[in-house]
Amino acid sequence: MPPWWLFLTVGAAAASAASINPSTFTVPGAFPTSVFTKYYNQATATSAQVQPVISDPVTHETYPLSLTDPNHIPQNDTVDPHPLPPVASSKRLLDSALAQVQSISANPVFANNTCAQCQSILEVAKFLTLAAPEQGPAFFVGVCTALKLASNCNVMFAIQNIGSVVTQVISNADVGGYDGQAFCQNFMGMCPIPPTSPLNLTNWFAKPKPNPLPAPKQRSGKRLNVLHISDVHLDPRYATGAEGNCTTGTCCRTNAFNTQSPNATLSPAPRFGTFHCDSPMALVMSALQAIPALTGTKGNGFAWTLYTGDLVSHDPESQLSRQYVEYTEALMYDLFKKMLGSGPVYAALGNHDSYNQAQDTPHSIGGGLAEQFSWNYDHVASLWQHEKWLPQAAVDLARAHYSAYMVKRIDGLRVISLNTNLWYRANYFNYINMTNPDVSGMLRFLTDELQDAEDAGDRVWIMGHVLSGWDGTNPLRNPTNLFYQIVDRFSPHVIANIFFGHTHEDQLSIFYANNATTRNADTAGAVAWIGPSITPLTNLNSGFRVYEVDSATFEVMDAHTWKSDVSTFPALDSQIQVGPSYAYEYSTRATYGGNVTSWGANDPLNATWWHHVTEAMEADPSLVTTFNTFQGKSSVQTKPCTGDCITAKICYIRSGSASIGQNCQQGFGSVQS
Ligand SMILES: [Zn+2]
Ligand SMILES: [Zn+2]
């Protein structure tokens, strides 16, 4: 039967309201308590809704008042299951991470933002390397392949190569922030370089810079001869006659070839070396034979020698090992001792003097990883002690400070050697917490040593491998920005000179006061000499330098540079009567001094003098031409510096930090091609 209201609409004409009884009904005010058998509260009360006791006929559970009590509503259901997916296997994590990389790569939301894309990928990497570090290397091989970052991704990022390092770094870095941006810029080319972080020097220096500065020391007039050699890059695997002009890998090796002529050697490696190869033993011995003969130090040796790093050859990562590095260190330091006569050699570690190449870990990484490179610091420190170049105190410092040390000489000079891998852009470990300019503590060590020297009235030479400035392509901004402020604080009264290597070229950096806001003769405070390399790599001649140094002030009074013309080496192959010739290239004072008329014959080649030289270069670009020739050690392969190169080069000379050097026009920093 249809419901009654249907009659109301369908049969409205027939029915009338008066026929439905009753027409109203008033419900009783009291709750009909008989409906439920039990109540949690007084069912007849008017102040609250009734709370019947309900028993479930199926589960036989009696529901508690707490489930419906309006005064105590439960906030978290901790009783019922809330299921989660199962823990993924390590392999599944890897597969998922790689699938996410594919999604991120294909997602049009990132279309024009490779930087966001890269940092997103690193975020995936971070969680994978935390959860399943054993899958890190495989993941980076996958990313490298997906993004076509290299042609040999599976070799490059294998755990035996750089895979373990990258895994450590990504799991520790702030990949969504500054660390990630810098990583994506340097290693993946997908982000702009992040800006120099604000530097807070409050409390960095124990004392303000003395004002006025202490009176300068008086020159003794006695000159010491100090040898500066750099970047030997001994290649003990050099194969005479192998392809010297190869297209991939390390040339002058039996496995090297040129893709234009895979079966016939185009340019057989000469016995004494060539432009695209590291130094064969024959070249290293030639240089070490020539040095005493040319510098008048046969028998008496040098006052001391600076070795600014890179002993080991430029092998691909897969061909390197700790043993190979230690072999070269042991061989070369012993050779220096045998060939250079008395006088200590103060050495700095180069980026190639490590395994993995260029890698060194700040101790702050913690745990079992903190000391992972100490085998090398211990090895070189022990060798330096074995050769009697360093006293126990300096050896102890080297072991504790990443091979960095301070040696206090009895003549009032302190030499501070730094491990510049800790500011080198190719050291992956520098990409952890990099807004801190001194994660490793090495610059704290340097500052404390400089303060100690200032308090004692001693002068300091600082030495390291990777230069802090020039065009800014090698060092990182934040640590070298701090280094620059440290140099300013302790110049010119404490720091007498700074020495670097690494570029293989004869270069120079001037440091100014107040972060170089004004660069003139008055604000120029310190100078870094970048020494020429023994290795010809790449397209360079082989060279070395001797400084004439005042024995009281430790200022450089003149610098003499020698070179050997690598283009003549092939002609030496067919005979054993003569080896290479090393020839005098130039005197720094004689070359540029004529243009600095305010300078007397007994005034030093300090920062002020060098600033005057750059002013002379601005007035007479032919001086830049000269500088450019010497930069490549007069190599026949060095291209001339003209046009924009002139002003860029002067700008590089005036740049002592990456932050400053990167403001110069880029592209003219190197004469290698
Ligand atoms: Zn080098
Ligand atoms: Zn280097």
From TrEMBL:
Residues holding Zn(2+) 2: 310, 351, 465, 502
Disulfide bonds: 115-191, 246-251, 252-277, 641-645
Signal sequence interval, chain numbering: 1-17
Pfam families: Metallophos
InterPro entries associated with the record: ASMase/PPN1_MPP (IPR041805), Calcineurin-like_PHP (IPR004843), Metallo-depent_PP-like (IPR029052), Sphingomy_PDE (IPR011160)
Domain Calcineurin-like phosphoesterase: residue ranges: 225-505
Cofactor note: Binds 2 Zn(2+) ions per subunit.
UniProt keyword annotations, A-Z: Disulfide bond, Glycoprotein, Glycosidase, Hydrolase, Metal-binding, Signal, Zinc
Any one Gene Ontology molecular-function term assigned to this protein's record: hydrolase activity, acting on glycosyl bonds
Function: Converts sphingomyelin to ceramide.
Family recorded in the similarity comment: Belongs to the acid sphingomyelinase family.
Protein name in the entry: Sphingomyelin phosphodiesterase
Organism: Crucibulum laeve
